[in-house]
């Protein structure tokens, strides 16, 4: 995704200030020598990002499998995989679940809670601040497998902590509310990033402006809406872009629910895993991956457009 | 995207590993061999893991040393679900890496062979494998396990069979007596209804749903389907939404929509392990499983859900046909069997030494040491004669169950058909009608096996 972000932003800047001129070549390298410096990075991007993406497209056009005859001699099946991705019921349902997961846990949950925490904590120092920071950060830095185990212990049907606290023995949270469970899980898991980013952004809002707003009698809510948000709009969009893409591709829910019960928490990464590895249909899995890539690009493009508009407006 | 990157990386790393040099061949003096099995000390199949590290490796190394060869043998443990183990092995073999000697489920031989991941023993290592004297001791059922397209691909380890386990204490409490052998599905349901009167007891655990994986198919659908007189695959055709299939799913409906089974256990990620624990805790009345359950789960010594009073508290019965005489081939009782086998990695640097290790692991002494204190039905008849006498349950499987058992079709599409069957049972557990589930299953089946022409309906 970084590969896509670079050129787009350069182009936007270029459009604002006119064509690249000689006086902008501060290092005096010239186009070709400058290109030489960028080359290693481009090679790395090519080998580790572009080639696998192209390879995914190729695999998606075959009936390649993990085992069996098609593993030894895959045949080209063209668009068949893509057609069956769209005609089969699994993909559409899985895409909806994924969007639900992204909007619920990333956009509303992590970004919203992160901003709220950063706003509430903005002027606090001392023990409370340190405790909140530590708790939020701890959820973020623990390894996935450990965290998944803790949450299974929390939500377990027979001996889970939550059932013990609520006095509801035998209530299967992961079975009755699989999506809600993984959304709450991911909010808990990932809020730290948004909170830290917003904390840093809020520190950059000139205090004089906030002071002025306060003197004119603006409520905290108006201060946030009219003074702070316009100042940190870029941070908000960048944060949303990052957490949306991460969450869209997040595989951790698999550790909690394995996509079940009955596909009810089978987000797209899990759907790909189940299709390609458990089911052994690598070709079909690659075709789904390719569609996921397109959805990722659409999300990224949407946010970058918003960012670009902001810069145009500011110029 | 991420999957593809991982695959490309695996292939890349694998290829570079194979590229490493080193003296190889029949007369190598320094040999490194790796054994892979889904067994781990203190966890899954702990007895096998201990046998490998405590018996096989030191003894084999010593035996090689006597021949002037310095052998280094490493055990690569796993302790995961069979599906995950298979995925890992397939990726290893696809990437041309992995252990030299590998334990697999016999049902995987077909698809591994078709993928070129494993060669016939007559090619790798060749004549030595054909001339091995151990074959004479292998039972014919065990020899069938390792054949695909009339060629031997592996050395058989053991064979299993499926029965119905029941908790005698619960049966006594429900007024069913402690000696139970149902003769029809109806008798299972009748027993279940009586067990239901006991508080806190789940009467029947018949594996269902996708979370249980292959267990649902082998322990649940296939024996039931066989009891309805239908094979899964015969004469080039797969069984579709036949009357037998609908009856099979009908039994699932009677159990899970009739309050005789616990649907949540079939849906949870760790539901199978949990069902084992509940049986061991006396909360499940009847549970369908293979002898693995007896040996490795409720075994008071080293089981994952040990029952101190297993030998007296747990009964076992043959799985009945729908009604007497209605089973596959007109039988009264049915079962399904699988087995474990060992293959040689086609990319091993030391095929001859790998087979030596394989032969050593399957020698009478080693097999006997492996089942010491934890008997199981091995592929070797000489060992079975000696060790099974001490365990009436395993004797029961060897004598009574294997006589009526069936085997799964060893074809590459089988795992996908199996998944479709799991989905069908999941649908019924979730409350749909057997007819709907059977129709959906047949539609999926048609996609998998290439159209209605390959389906018997």
Secondary structure blueprint with pairings:
The complex is a heterodimer of chains A (315) and B (457).
Chain A: H1 2-17, H2 30-60, H3 69-72, H4 80-87, H5 89-120, H6 127-141, H7 144-155, H8 161-166, H9 173-176, H10 178-203, H11 207-215, H12 220-231, H13 233-248, H14 253-257, H15 268-278, H16 282-314
Helix pairs in contact in A: 1-16, 2-16, 4-16, 5-10, 5-13, 6-10, 10-13, 11-12, 13-16, 15-16
Chain B: H1 2-18, E1 30-37, H2 46-66, E2 70-77, H3 82-94, E3 101-105, H4 109-114, H5 127-131, H6 140-145, E4 147-148, E5 151-152, E6 155-159, E7 162-167, H7 168-173, H8 185-195, E8 202-205, H9 214-227, E9 233-234, E10 237-239, H10 243-256, H11 263-267, H12 271-280, E11 284-290, H13 291-297, H14 310-313, E12 314-317, E13 319-320, E14 333-337, E15 339-344, H15 351-361, H16 364-370, H17 381-387, H18 392-401, E16 405-407, H19 414-429, H20 434-449, E17 455-456
Parallel strand pairs in B: 1-2, 1-3, 8-11, 10-17, 14-16
Antiparallel strand pairs in B: 3-15, 4-5, 6-15, 7-11, 7-12, 9-10, 13-14
Helix pairs in contact in B: 9-10, 9-19, 10-19, 10-20, 19-20
Give a quick set of tags describing it.
heterodimer, A: 315 residues, mainly alpha, MetI-like fold, flat, B: 457 residues, alpha/beta, D-Maltodextrin-Binding Protein, domain 2, 2 domains, five-stranded mixed beta sheet, four-stranded mixed beta sheet, 20 helices, 45% helix, globular, disordered N terminus
């Amino acid at each position: 995704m970084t590969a896509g972000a670079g050129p787009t932003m350069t182009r936007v800047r270029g459009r604002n200030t006119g064509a690249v001129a000689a006086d902008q070549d501060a290092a005096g390298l010239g186009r070709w020598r400058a290109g030489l410096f960028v080359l290693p990075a481009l090679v790395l991007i090519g080998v580790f990002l572009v080639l696998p993406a192209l390879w995914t497209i190729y695999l998606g056009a075959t009936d390649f499998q993990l085992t069996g005859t098609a593993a030894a001699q895959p045949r080209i099946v063209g668009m068949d995989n893509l057609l069956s991705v769209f005609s089969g019921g699994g993909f559409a349902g899985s895409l909806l679940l994924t969007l639900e997961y992204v909007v619920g846990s990333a956009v509303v949950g992590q970004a919203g809670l992160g901003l709220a925490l950063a706003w509430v904590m903005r002027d606090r120092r001392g023990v409370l601040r340190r405790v909140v920071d530590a708790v939020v950060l701890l959820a973020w830095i623990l390894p996935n497998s450990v965290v998944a185990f803790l949450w299974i212990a929390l939500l377990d049907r027979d001996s889970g902590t939550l059932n013990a606290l609520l006095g509801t023995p035998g209530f299967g949270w992961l079975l009755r509310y699989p999506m809600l469970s993984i959304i709450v899980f991911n909010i808990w898991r990932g809020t730290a990033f948004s909170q830290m980013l917003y904390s840093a952004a809020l520190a950059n809002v000139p205090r004089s402006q906030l002071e002025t707003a306060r003197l004119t009698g603006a409520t905290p809510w108006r201060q946030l809406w009219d003074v702070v948000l316009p100042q940190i709009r870029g941070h908000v969009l960048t944060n949303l872009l990052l957490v949306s893409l991460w969450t869209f591709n997040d595989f951790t829910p698999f550790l909690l629910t394995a996509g079940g019960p009955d596909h009810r928490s089978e987000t797209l990464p899990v759907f790909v895993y189940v299709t390609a590895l458990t089911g052994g249909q690598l070709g079909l899995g690659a075709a789904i991956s390719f569609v996921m890539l397109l959805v990722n690009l659409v999300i990224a493009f949407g946010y970058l457009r918003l960012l670009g508009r902001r810069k145009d407006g500011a110029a | 995207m991420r999957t593809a990157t991982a695959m490309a990386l695996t292939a890349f790393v694998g290829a570079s590993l194979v590229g490493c040099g080193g003296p190889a061949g029949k007369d190598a003096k320094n040999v490194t061999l790796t054994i892979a099995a889904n067994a781990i000390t203190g966890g899954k199949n702990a007895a096998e893991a201990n046998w490998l590290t405590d018996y096989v490796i030191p003894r084999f190394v010593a035996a090689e040393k006597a021949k002037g060869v310095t052998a280094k043998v490493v055990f690569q443990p796993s302790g995961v679900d069979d599906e995950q183990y298979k995925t890992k092995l397939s990726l290893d073999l696809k990437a041309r890496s992995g252990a030299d000697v590998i334990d697999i489920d016999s049902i995987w031989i077909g698809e591994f062979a078709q993928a070129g991941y494993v060669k016939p023993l007559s090619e790798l290592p060749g004549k030595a494998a054909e001339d091995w004297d151990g074959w004479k001791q292998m039972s014919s059922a065990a020899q069938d396990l390792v054949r695909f397209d009339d060629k031997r691909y592996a050395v058989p380890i053991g064979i299993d069979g499926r029965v119905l386990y029941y908790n005698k204490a619960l049966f006594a409490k429900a007024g069913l007596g402690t000696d139970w052998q149902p003769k029809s599905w109806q008798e299972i349901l009748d027993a279940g209804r009586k067990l239901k009167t006991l508080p806190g007891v789940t009467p029947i655990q018949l594996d269902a749903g996708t979370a249980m994986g292959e267990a649902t198919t082998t322990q649940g659908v296939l024996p039931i389907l066989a009891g309805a007189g239908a094979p899964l695959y015969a004469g080039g055709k797969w069984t579709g939404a036949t009357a037998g299939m609908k009856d099979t799913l009908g039994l699932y409906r009677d159990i899970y929509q009739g309050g005789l089974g616990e649907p949540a256990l079939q849906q949870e990620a760790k539901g199978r392990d949990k069902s084992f624990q509940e049986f061991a805790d006396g909360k499940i009345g009847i549970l369908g499983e293979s002898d693995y359950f007896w040996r490795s789960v409720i075994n008071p010594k080293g089981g994952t859900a040990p029952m101190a009073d297993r030998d007296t508290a747990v009964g076992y019965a043959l799985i009945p046909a729908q009604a007497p005489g209605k089973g596959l081939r007109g039988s009264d009782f049915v079962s399904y069997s699988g087995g474990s086998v060992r293959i040689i990695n086609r990319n091993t640097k030391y095929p001859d030494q790998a087979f030596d290790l394989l032969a050593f692991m399957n020698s009478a002494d080693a097999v006997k040491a492996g089942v010491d204190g934890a008997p199981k039905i091995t592929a070797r008849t000489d060992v079975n004669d000696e060790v099974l006498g001490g365990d009436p349950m395993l004797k029961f499987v060897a004598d009574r169950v294997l006589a009526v058992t069936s085997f799964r079709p060893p074809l590459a599409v089988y795992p996908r058909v199996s998944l479709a069957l799991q989905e069908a049972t999941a649908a019924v557990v979730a409350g749909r009608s057997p007819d709907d589930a059977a129709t959906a299953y047949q539609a999926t089946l048609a996609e998998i096996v290439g159209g209605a022409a390959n389906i018997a309906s």
